[in-house]
Write a structure and sequence with these properties.
The protein is α+β, with helices and mostly antiparallel strands and 103 residues long. The chain is built from 2 helices and 5 strands. Helices cover 12% and strands 27% of the residues. It is globular. InterPro entries: Fe-transptr_FeoA-like (IPR007167), FeoA (IPR052713), FeoA_core_dom (IPR038157), Transcriptional_repressor_C (IPR008988).
Length: 103
């Protein structure tokens, strides 16, 4: 499956980035940005009417990609054994555990 085909908010794992030509600068840049084998990825949003750009998240970083760029990235839908980071609840994002208030 290609990243450009992945449904929104579906956890996946990068399998490969395809080079269109030897030394392909776009494929090289995608790898530099973190689209490497084994990395967790998901599509956050698609552009208007499902067109360009799409927003993909690798780790905690989001990137806007053209569909043609996303089509170079091979992904596999993540299995249930892949753990996800739970989102912080309101007020927890800045307070250390010892400083949390209890009601």
């Amino acid at each position: 499956m290609r990243l450009s085909e992945l449904p929104r908010r579906t956890p996946a794992v990068v399998q490969s980035v395809d080079d269109a030509t030897p030394g392909d600068p776009v494929a090289r840049r995608l790898r530099e940005l973190g689209f490497v084998a084994g990395e967790a990825v998901q599509v956050i949003a698609y552009g208007p009417f499902g067109m360009d750009p799409l927003v993909a998240q690798v780790g905690f970083t989001r990137f806007a990609l053209r569909r043609s760029e996303a089509a170079r990235i091979g992904v596999e839908i993540a299995s249930a054994s892949v753990t996800r980071i739970a989102p912080a609840t309101q007020g927890d994002e800045t307070a250390p555990p010892s400083a949390k208030r209890t009601a």
